[in-house]
Amino acid sequence: MEKTVITIARSYGSGGRTLGRLLAKELQINCYDREILRMASDESGINEALFGQADEKRKGLPLFKIAKKVYKGEVLSPESDDFVSNDNLFNYQAKVIKELAREESCVIIGRCADYILKDYENVIRLYFYAPLEDCIVRVQEQNGGSRKEILKKIEKTDKYRSEYYRYYTGRDWNDARNYDFCLNTTSMSYEKLIQAVKAYMEICKK
To answer: What is the CATH number of the domain that holds 25?
Structure first.
């Protein structure tokens, strides 16, 4: 198989993360999600805990409404006062994502990877989604919880992902024009979803 990087954006409850890991296993390539935090820590010398804390802090703050910080591709030096800022932590994650795209075939989940790699030719950008009711059922089966709790979690997570994406890309997260292939995961097994993605990848090669 020629080198191919698959980026996955997904609505909460669509099964996108699980699908990404299963797809990577099927293709016998690596899958990167939170692993990128560790790699960015190694790259920058910044404590990995700060990357994790930045992820969690962002989820609780309305900072994405304040201003956009569209990613330009630069990282700040250790001498900068903003070296450990949230924006520079994102920049280092983006640096790692670009290095992975140059070095190997892999699956990258989330982290605006589709935008970061928008100028790379060997990238297939996927977006997985499902109707709200289907997402509620999937989350309930996997994690349990009341319908009210799950609905709140879905709304909060998707809102966060949307604002995070807009802050760093200037684009709408759920705009199909950002992606090569959008797939509704409703009423399809993971096996069938993987086959659908593989079929699309074969078409792209022709």
So the answer is: 3.40.50.300
